[in-house]
Amino acid sequence: MTRLLPLFVLLASAAGALAPLKDARAQVFANHNSNAPVNFSADRIEVQDRADRVVISGNVVVDQGGLTLKAARMTVAYRQAGGVEIDRIDASGNVVVTRGVETARGNVAIYDLNRRLITMLGNVQLNQGSNRLTGGRLLIDLVSGRSTVDGRSAGGPPGSVPGSSGRVSGTFTVPQRANRP
Questions:
Q1: Model confidence, pTM
Q2: Which domain holds residue 155?
């Protein structure tokens, strides 16, 4: 029973780790309520105490205040320093983060809590209403508030995204204005 308490604390902390997305006010997912209750579900949860990680798999869904993360699998790396401290969350398998009409998709998402960086890799698509950007990698720096989409996946030269031109593409809608004579 004493081992279950750290598991619940860890899972609540892992799901709550989505909260720093609220600080990226210039990007999608602005104004997220990090005080909202956290709900999660999955087909399987495995605690790997000796490796200081938890593996959550099978239709993983984490929701907090209308911000939802879905993935096939999520690995939470932590350390115990007077309590559970989460260092990194890796999500894989059709990763989708949504809030209202805002959606980010990718094959993989890595959230480095210490550096406050979120990286999505592989077939990245960022949608906000009818606006869309696609590329190989999306990097959100929660410290500077800057987001970058590029055409390459991590570790490869530009153009190394399989099945893509290695370029960023997108569509932005513009307000319709009446023609003036």
A1: 0.71
A2: 4-171
